[in-house]
Amino acid sequence: MKIVTLIALFFITASVSGQVKRVYLEELVKNDKMKVFNRELTARNSGGRSCVHLSAAKGDGVAWIEGLDFSNGIIEIDLKGKDVSQESFLGVAFHVQSRKVLDAVYFRPFNFQAKDAVKKSHAVQYVSHPDFPWEVLRNKYPGKYEQAVNPAPGPDDWFHVKIVVEYPQITVYVNRNTEPSLTVTQLNQRTSGKLGLWVGNGSDGDFTSLQIQQK
Fold first, then answer.
1. Cβ pair 104, 95 in contact under 8 A
2. Tell me, what's the pLDDT at 5?
3. Closest CA to 152 of 182, 123, 117
4. What does pTM read for this prediction?
5. Contact (CB, 8 A) for 7 and 33
6. Which end of the chain is more exposed for a tag (fewer CB within 10 A), N or C?
7. Taking 80 as the threshold, does the pLDDT of residue 170 lie above it?
8. Burial, 57: exposed, middle or buried (Cβ in 10 Å; 0-12, 13-18, 19+)?
9. The dihedral of CA 124, 209, 160, 86: what is its sign?
10. Which residues on adjacent β-strands are paired with residue 53?
């Protein structure tokens, strides 16, 4: 059986079983099973780990997994950004309808250990595009949809993310901490869609060890 067929069967199993399933991102890239917008997606090694890399470019970038729909459940992934101000926004997009209509939880690693308390409080962010980008949320609801990450990871280090989606609630945990870094209520009525990798304006990022548990 060809590997592409195996991958397709994997996604069907993952979507109906409720079991934790690992997604091998590097294999998806090699077999052209990810839809990429405004970026290049490549497999590589980073920080001693095999991963996939989304390149930097102007505007947001997203790469979603073909053949996988996600509604409620748990998403776990390891991410690696960089300690460069305004050039490291990376995370996970879910309930994706198109490149411009999606929900995302993303991180600003350059703010993880910022000495300025306000900047540090902008470490993890929820957005709901197109109606609620970060600028709108920060202006209308300061401190509600973005928070600090404590204890803070190193800004150049790999860090583990767990996102629990139980519509309409979204809860985010970092580095297996039992206390959430962010808990928000989803700002739309979308309950399902594609799932993928997301980077913000001018940013690149590394991604590995994606696991999905549908509920």
1. no
2. 43
3. 123
4. 0.92
5. yes
6. N
7. yes
8. middle
9. negative
10. 42, 206
